[in-house]
Amino acid sequence: MVVRSVDLRSDTVTRPTDAMREAMASAEVDDDILGYDPTARHLEEEMAKMMGKEAALFVPSGTMANLICVMVHCEVRGSEVILGDNSHIHVYENGGISTIGGVHPKTIKNEEDGTMDLEAIEAAIRDPKGSTFYPSTRLICLENTHANSGGRCLSAEYTDSVGEIAKRHGLKLHIDGARLFNASIALGVPVNRLVEAADSVSVCLSKGLGAPVGTVIVGSSGFIEKAKRLRKTLGGGMRQIGVLCAAALVALQENLPKLQFDHKKAKLLAEGLNQMKGIRINVAAVETNMIFMDMEDGSRLTAEKLRKCLTECGILVLPGNSPRIRMVVHHQITTSDVHYTLSCLQQAVQMIQEPSLN
Ligand SMILES: Cc1ncc(COP(=O)(O)O)c(C=O)c1O
Ligand SMILES: C[C@@H](O)[C@H](N)C(=O)O
Known about the structure:
Layout: E1 6-7, H1 18-25, H2 38-51, E2 55-59, H3 62-73, E3 79-84, H4 88-91, H5 96-99, E4 104-108, H6 118-124, E5 136-143, H7 156-168, E6 172-177, H8 180-187, H9 191-194, E7 200-204, E8 215-219, H10 221-233, H11 242-255, H12 259-273, E9 279-280, E10 290-295, H13 303-312, E11 315-316, E12 325-328, H14 335-353
Parallel strand pairs: 1-11, 3-4, 3-5, 5-6, 6-7
Antiparallel strand pairs: 2-8, 7-8, 9-10, 10-12
Bound molecules: pyridoxal-5'-phosphate and threonine.
Pyridoxal-5'-phosphate (PLP) binds near residues 147 and 178.
C-alpha cells in the first residue's frame, strides 16, 4: 500500500526548488551563441574559480561534457583513451567517444574503490614506436566519485599519481566529476585540490546539487575555446541559457552545504539495511550518497521481489533485472523517508523469508 513516494532511483530526479524557479524566472539573459549570456558567464566564472582552472563552459549534460572533453584531448585521428571498464563514459554514454568522437577506448579494470591500478594504467600506454599498428594513447580518464563502485571517492593523492603518469608520457588527464562535490565533502578536501592534476573536469550541477539541468566543463582557456566550438558542432550551443544557469547558481549556494546530510542519510539507510537478515551491504563502502544492496547467497530474497515490495510502498529504485539494488539519496529525501524505507524493507524481508508467519 503506497503511503508516500520516496524516489531513490538517482540524485538526478530532484525537482527545482522554489528559489531555483524564482531565479529562473528573473534571470538576466542574452544570446549565448551570438555573444554571451551574462548569467551563464557568471556561473562559468564561479566554477572556474572554485575548480582552480582558467575557464569554464556550461553544457546541457554530463554525457556531452565528457564527450567534448575526450574529443578535444583526442582531436588527432587514431587516438586512444585509457578509462575504467566500469566507468560511466564506457558503460552508459552509448559509446559516444567512438561512434561520434572516433576515439578508441582502452579499458582497465576498475577496482572496487573506483580506482584503476597505477601499474596497469602505465602498462596500457601505447609505445609510440608501435604507431604503425597501434592507436596512440593521448588521454587518461578518471571518475570521482565513481558511480558504479557505489559513489566511492578518489583521493587527491591517487589522482596526483595518475597525473604524474600522464605527464611522464605526454598525455592529458580528464576527470568525470559528475559528483565531485560529493567527493570533496566526504573527503574534506577542496574541489580544486581534488582536480589539481587534471587538464579538464566535467562537473554536474544536475546531480546531488539538485539543479534541473546542466554540467560545467573546466580547463585551460585554450581548451575551453575548443570545447565551446565542439559544443556548437554537437548541437549543444544554446541561446538564453541564463534561465538554466540561474538555477545552477542557486543550487551551488543552497545545496552544496546539504551534501553532508545526504551522506549521513545514506549511511543511516545502509546501517539499517545491514541489520536485515538476507541483505548484504558493505557499510564502510558507503562514502557518499549511494548504497548498493545485494542478497545473501541462499537467501529467499531476490532483487526482483524486493523491487516489487518497494514499488508497492511507493519507494522507487531503478528498474531492471540486476541482482543488485542501488539506492541514491539526495536533498529531497528526508530522514523520515529513510526510516519509512527501512520499515517497508523490514516487513518485506520478513514476509519473503518467513511466509508462514504472515
Ligand atoms: C559518473 C557520471 N558521469 C556522467 C553522467 C552523465 O550525466 P548526464 O546524465 O547529465 O548525461 C552520470 C549520470 O548521469 C554519471 O553518474
Ligand atoms: C544512470 C546513470 O546514467 C546516471 N548517471 C545515474 O547515476 O543515475
